[in-house]
Write a structure and sequence with these properties.
Blueprint lengths: L1 E6 L2 E4 L4 E9 L6 E7 L6 E7 L5 E3 L7 E6 L4 E6 L8 E8 L12 E2 L3 E6 L1
């Protein structure tokens, strides 16, 4: 059983920055990739960013490319999401996810999910 715990959410003014963290714990036999998703009120959950665990290759949604940076610490089993130039459109609950089973589509397929952390950007 793998647990993911997010932290770092909060309220920030437009143009500001936040850094989200997600720590993985539990019985982790392998880690293929980790990612971040978000869900705004009344909208479907959407892919934000992902990183492969071994090579550190990164992938981003077009809406955050150039503003958000995903990184990881293999030793700490933690993934980070640095969010800059935030706008009201970034307001959402942000979810961390991990894939510990096999290689799949890292823009949508994960077998472990965190509880989410709220990010609110005021205009």
């Amino acid at each position: 059983q793998v647990q993911l715990v997010e932290s770092g959410g909060g309220l920030v003014q437009a143009g500001g920055s936040l850094r989200l963290s997600c720590a993985a714990s539990g019985r982790i036999l392998s880690m293929y990739y980790m990612g971040w998703f978000r869900q705004a009120p009344g909208k479907e959950r959407e892919f934000v960013a992902a990183i492969t665990w071994s090579g550190g290759n990164t992938y981003y949604a077009d809406s955050v490319k150039g503003r958000f940076t995903i990184s990881r610490s293999n030793a700490e089993k933690t993934v980070y999401l640095q969010m800059n130039s935030l706008g009201p459109e970034d307001t959402a609950v942000y979810y961390c996810a991990a894939e510990t089973g096999t290689w799949r589509n890292l823009r949508q397929d994960y077998n472990c999910w965190g509880q989410g952390t709220q990010v609110t950007v005021s205009s």
